[in-house]
Amino acid sequence: MTDLWFAAAGLVLVAIVMVLWPLWRRRQSERVDRTALNVALYEERVAELEAQQRAGDLSEAQLAAAKGEASRLLLEDTAAADARQAPLTRQLTWVLIIGAVALPLAVLGLYRQWGAADGLALYREMQATPQVETLEALIDRTQRVVEVQPENGEAWYMLGRAYMSAQNPEKAADAFGNALVRLGEQPEVLAQLAQARYFANGNQLDAETARALDKAIELDPQQPTALGLLGIAAFETGDFAGSIRYWQTLMQGMDPESPGAQAIQSGIERARQRMVDAGQTPPPAAEPATGPTINLRVSVAPELLAELPADASVFVFARDPNGPPMPLIAKRLSLSQLPLEITLSADDAMLPGVTLDSATALQLVARVSPTGDAREGTHLGQLDEVHAGQDGTLELVIDRAIN
């Protein structure tokens, strides 16, 4: 901040000089002009007297007396003019001195009131150290960001995620609530808010949390955080069949070999065992896909990896280019999972009764959404003229930005 204050002081000094210099020049000019006028009048008077003396109207003694009188009047006029100007000059000098002192103080007060000194300091800190090393440092920096930019919904969301990592769901819920107000009803924000409230409420699903989860699922039926939390809540209340259904839906968008999928599968098996122990019949296990399928490998062009956040969502869907814009089938992945081989089938249908016909040409799209909203995206990859059931594994590469 030191360089800012030096620059401000320099600008104030320049402003003062720009005000004082014309006034000083004007005062000097006025003084010179007044003196020059008096001297000119004196010389004109002397010339008249000398002309009268040459004409015989004045004697030498009279000429000398008249010149002395003219000299005396010149000195009196000059002194009187200086005397009249002196008080004004002193008053103006004091006005300028007071202004020179008041101006920097006024500038400082206005800057403290309306300026962004904290924001500038934070910006420079983030430039000097883009990455923080500890979770506490991340929380501290993000808190300062939302203090400087209280309308930054993304910053509030990041703060909520940081609080969740720090096992502080109460503060996380407040942060996610602020993010929701500023970002609107986005599925990921709703799900994270519900999760924070659930843990802050002692693992109890209250009405407000349930409404947030329902809205998240309504906007995105494959929202992983919401599905996982609904499965946990159902398990905790003894609704093991419900937890199995939620977790099986969640498994559809995950790599079966990933640690997360294996943890979910373990939860499903525990829920099944609880139902067996209670003499209940567990729901059937998810059956393998039937009918034509589309095998593909989803990846990201290497030059785009640095531009995309690792926790961004990737929506892979197939649609009929000659039909409605809504996808027929879709899966949700995470950017960190890519490259990944997946299979799309009728089991991934967005609506009941949707089937895949090998005769229908489909359009395959992979869309990256940092916000987790399927309707928003920053980058995509696309394949046209794809048919369900065709041999081989298709390569779907996310390789361009969405304009």
Automatic annotation (TrEMBL):
Keywords: Cytochrome c-type biogenesis, Membrane, Repeat, TPR repeat, Transmembrane, Transmembrane helix. Residues 294-399 form the Cytochrome c-type biogenesis protein H Ig-like domain. One of its GO terms (biological process) is cytochrome complex assembly. Signal peptide: none annotated. It comes from the Bacteria. It is found in: Cell envelope. The keyword Transferase does not apply. One of its GO terms (cellular component) is cell envelope. Residues 147-259 form the Cytochrome c-type biogenesis protein H TPR domain. This is C-type cytochrome biogenesis protein CcmI.
